[in-house]
Design goal:
heterodimer, A: about 220 residues, alpha/beta, Rossmann fold, four-stranded antiparallel sheet, 7 helices, B: about 400 residues, 2 domains, two-stranded antiparallel ribbon, about 55% helix, binds adenosine-5'-triphosphate, binds magnesium ion
Chain lengths: ~220, ~400
């Protein structure tokens, strides 16, 4: 379970301050498949970054499975992320010099997993996202959709309970989008992984089971289907 | 994995990596060859000067160097000689008995220094037998060999006779008449004005003492550090002895070398500055270009220390590749010119050149093949690459993943 309590993020405190996230209190239960939507500049990215501990909120707390991650030190939060949260970004988020396989495997290496379990899990993930055949390609040799699938596989590598994805389909065409969503959906249903993703894309919104709408950093609508 | 990422990044920026490696290589190439030439020359200089008279290490009775009188002489027994011989790095030892004396021929008189030597042993350390201008070095008792300057001063030569007189041991009078066995050119103007050689026995007779020596001269194993020998000798010798290296007995040579070497170091320093700026530029670009990637790596859980590890490994690979290349290329060159010595007069400072002429020393010296040169300069480059890595270290420690990932 992820809970945010009176989460506030203010950029440029003082004269031209921007309240990117303005007093957001909400709960994401385990197994949810949530889309965070809203107009450009409404605070979606900032919100996800704060939830995942990439950004530090100005005030308020983020509590994940009873742990107040907003109290963690810089090194602690990096370690926490490694073991508990998977990230997928809008684009260009693979390590260019590593192959698809190595990008995925690296996470487990950072976790200190042994070679055999790394290999097994990497192959399993590559199969899940349907890229086993392309495992030795570098990101530059993959399409945008394929890269995003590798990114999802990488996010899953550490067996996190949560995956945060900031506009994962923004650069993808229709078929790649539905392909990626199918994969995400399957992982959500079969492995009970909680997904929170921001999007502008109506096709993506339609597939979500909960839609949280942000405007000026505040939740203005929260629908569970 | 760190190594893999680092290596692939180097490979990805082939051109830049090559430029960096080449610049390190070029600088180190020049530095190593320059220093190898210089040190080769110094070794030759030291060898020539030291082996022509002083020996790398000398032992005297304590106080002898400051007051060179027979009252500060020593009695050397076989036990002492054995002890010295057993010290690591000592190859040959030879005793001498040295004393001041007046030389008189006809109406003329001048001062000189008599060296009582052990003929067979002496030839293992000095090359006097090869420096004879006339006559032979094959001394018998009560014969004398005189230096070139003395021969010229008195207008005497082989088979003439000279008279020596002065003070013997413990205030005794010393005097004697000696036939000249030959004339020697010591290749040193100062020594040529005063040098006289007789057998040890003859000189002991002359000073009326049959067991004293003033010097124990030590010839070392090639490349063995003379300071180390002094250290080792210190462990077995009592305070009754003083141990000196050629650096103390011939301070002018040490000074000449230091002055000349400083020039080389300045040159090396300039090259280092160029290399360091080149490398710094590379590292700067490497860091700036990859901020986004670093942001991603931190976001997905790579610690900042590991991230820095990647950059450090890249920097070290780049610099060490240049270093390795330079060593691989220069070493055969050093060996070649070690076997086929080159004329280095052009490369030397005025002081050194003038000195060489006086010493009758030909500036044809082999290049040094000592590993100290490439290793010490590689170490310098290695340390510089660590210092340069401070910049990315700071950048990474301050890197904000959210900001760095904004495109
Ligand atoms: N580093 C920053 N400094 C100042 N203001 C910022 C910064 N980052 C974001 N903002 C502001 O915070 C607000 C929220 O931005 P955010 O990126 O979270 O919006 P978003 O909903 O993700 O928009 P988009 O849909 O365009 O990605 C915006 O008004 C933006 O201008
Ligand atoms: Mg955004």
């Amino acid at each position: 379970m992820i809970e945010t309590k009176k989460l506030i993020k203010i950029y440029n405190p003082g004269k031209f301050e921007v309240k990117a996230v303005n007093d957001v209190s909400t709960v994401f239960a385990e197994g949810e498949f949530t889309a965070v939507v809203g107009p450009s500049g409404s605070g979606k990215t900032t919100f996800l970054n704060c939830v995942g501990g990439l950004d530090t909120p100005s005030s308020g707390d983020v509590i994940i499975s009873d742990e107040k991650i907003t109290k963690f030190s810089g090194a602690e939060i990096i370690k926490y992320r490694l073991n508990n949260i998977g990230f997928v970004f809008q684009a260009y988020n693979l390590i260019p010099v590593l192959s698809a396989k190595e990008n995925i495997e690296m996470i487990m290496l950072l976790q200190g997993a042994n070679e055999k379990s790394r290999k097994t899990r990497t192959d399993e993930l590559l199969n899940q996202v349907g890229l086993y055949e392309m495992r030795n390609r570098r990101p530059s040799q993959l399409s945008g959709g394929q890269q995003q699938r590798v990114a999802v596989a990488r996010a899953l590598a550490s067996k996190p309970k949560f995956i945060l994805a900031d506009e994962p389909t923004a650069n993808l065409d229709t078929s790649s989008t539905s392909n990626l969503l199918n994969i995400m959906n399957k992982l959500n249903e079969n492995e009970k992984i909680t997904f929170i993703f921001s999007t502008h894309d109506q096709r993506v919104i339609d597939r979500a089971r909960r839609v949280v709408t942000l405007e000026d950093g505040k939740i203005v609508n929260d629908i569970k289907k | 994995m760190i190594f893999k990422i680092a290596w692939r990044n180097i490979y990805r920026n082939k051109k830049r990596s090559l430029i960096t490696i080449t610049s390190v290589f070029a600088a180190l190439f020049l530095i190593i060859l320059m220093r190898a030439l210089q040190f080769g020359f110094y070794d030759k200089l030291i060898e020539t000067v030291v082996e022509s008279y002083a020996g790398y290490v000398e032992i005297h009775a304590d106080g002898f160097w400051d007051n060179q009188s027979l009252d500060n002489s020593m009695q050397v027994d076989q036990q002492l000689l054995d002890d010295i011989q057993s010290v690591e790095g000592v190859e040959n030892i030879v005793q001498r008995l040295q004393t001041f004396s007046l030389i008189s021929v006809g109406e003329k008189t001048k001062g000189g220094v008599i060296n009582g030597i052990n003929l067979s042993e002496e030839q293992k350390i000095t090359d006097w037998n090869k420096k004879m201008v006339s006559g032979s070095f094959d001394l018998s008792d009560n014969e004398i060999i005189i230096a070139k300057g003395i021969a010229e001063f008195f207008g005497i030569s082989e088979n003439d006779t000279l008279i020596l007189y002065g003070q013997g041991y413990r205030g005794m009078m010393a005097a004697g008449k000696y036939p000249i066995k030959g004339v020697i050119d010591l290749k040193n103007p100062d020594l040529n004005k005063i040098g006289l050689f007789m057998t040890m026995e003859s000189v002991r007779n002359y000073v009326s003492s049959d067991e004293i020596s003033t010097h124990i001269i030590i010839g070392k194993e090639k490349y063995y550090d003379e300071d180390k020998i002094v250290e080792n000798l210190g462990l077995i010798l009592s305070d009754d002895y003083e141990v000196m290296t050629w650096k103390e007995t011939l301070p002018e040579i040490e000074q000449t070398i230091t002055a000349d070497s400083a020039g080389g170091l300045i040159m090396a320093f300039i090259l280092y500055v160029i290399v360091v700026f080149g490398m710094f530029g590379t590292v700067l670009m490497m860091t700036e270009e990859r901020k986004y990637e670093f942001g991603v790596l931190i976001s997905i859980g790579m610690s900042r220390i590991r991230l820095f590890g990647i950059i450090l490994v890249e920097t070290i690979i780049l610099s060490m590749a240049g270093v390795l290349l330079a060593i691989i290329v220069t070493y055969p060159i050093c060996i070649y010119y070690n076997i086929n010595p080159i004329d280095m007069a052009i490369l030397m400072g005025d002081g050194a050149e003038q000195m060489m002429e006086e010493m009758g020393f030909s500036p044809v010296a082999p290049m040094s093949t000592s590993w100290d040169i490439p290793l010490s300069h590689s170490l310098v480059i290695f340390i510089f690459s660590l210092l340069i890595s401070i910049y990315p270290a700071i950048k990474i420690s301050k890197l904000n993943p959210v900001k760095s990932m904004k495109v």
